[in-house]
Amino acid sequence: MSKKAALHNLGCKVNAYELEAMEQILEKSGYEIVPFEPGADVYIINTCTVTNIADRKSRQMLHRARKMNPAAVVAAVGCYAQVRGRELEQDPMIDLVVGNSRKAELPELLEKYREQKKSVLTDISREKIYEPLSIEKTEEHTRAFLKVQDGCNQFCSYCIIPYARGRVRSRRPEDVLEEVRKLASSGCREIVLSGIHLSSYGTDLEGDTGLLDLIRLLHPVEGIARIRLGSLEPGIITEEFAAGLASMPKVCPHFHLSLQSGCDRTLKHMNRRYTSGEYLERCGILRKYFEDPALTTDIITGFPGETEEDFRESAEFVEKVSFFETHVFPYSRREGTRAAAMDGQLPEAVKKQRSHVLLELDRRKRAEYLSRALGKETEVLLEEETELEGRRAWAGYTREYRKVVLISDQELGNTLRTVCPREVRGGEFLLCR
Predict the structure, then answer these.
(1) CA–CA separation, 75 vs 56, rounded Å?
(2) pLDDT of residue 117
(3) Cα separation values, 290 from 149, 205, 245, 378, Å
């Protein structure tokens, strides 16, 4: 079999990490990784199924790959492949379907696919072992997203992911530490710990190991200047947890706490395991231990049965918490979830109109949070060269994940600099001269 492989990712940061891992596995097996365009011998699409739009994009990308080279091997891997694998088996455009527990075996599966069945799927709900995927370097060089956990036991009523990813499976701390050391030696300065349900890290491991213990293990690694956390559930935020994080100077004061709704009635229907009052309390704990931390969140609009009053209550709560960023998603009906069978399904126009309201609020709050950094010295990790006003410039992020653009003719990539922002440009980033 020829050895030119093109890979394309859809979906979350966990998927992006897995794509890098698959690229590196294939390279070690003799494949040449080439751009996702005509000319490859193998096309691998790491699919997503979090929304109907994600499903559609996954199908479109698989079909696009076939058109790029009708003689190539086209492989669907990941979440959409796991959930809809039996349907994809019937698609003549697709040669190989690989679910969410066999990605590490891609070279072997590609070599043998002609003698095998079209799909390589397992019952993901029975998987108990973390799949051994890792990376030694990252294309971004400065920042690496590091997957340390897979699966979810929460079963929120709207979410298909537990069916695509299975139950909680945590990576062994010593394996995470080894990967972080390799990333540091390759020049990486920041790691972002991520997972499907990061707050559950360690609950399946022997002993009393949790996310805070893992961070304490990684904190001393030389070369790593920052440790950032992926999405967290509010319940993990306790006085002990926040105090522990605050005692480690590499931990960034940037916390993404998944909310989904600020209305208690809607939260109950979503099977979210907290009230708006409990959520607000957790935000208060973070603000107690960190000075003006960046709090970000996700909100779903138009959940089944959400009334105008429910939505107004949710929007008022978002205003009250005052997030740095609010990621807004119209509710997507997912076959196989409890919410899909609920009464009170709302029209798309209503979902979009409510999303628009929250997006306007997000724009205002984002600008407010950026503005609070003006005139204050702040550390920025500069990542990539860009251009602004016809001049050479460098873009990067503060510890709170405020974007900064620094106009400078110096070579500043992958360096930490202390700057004093003087302007908010377009409500999107801080400008330094």
Answers:
(1) 16
(2) 53
(3) 26, 30, 9, 15
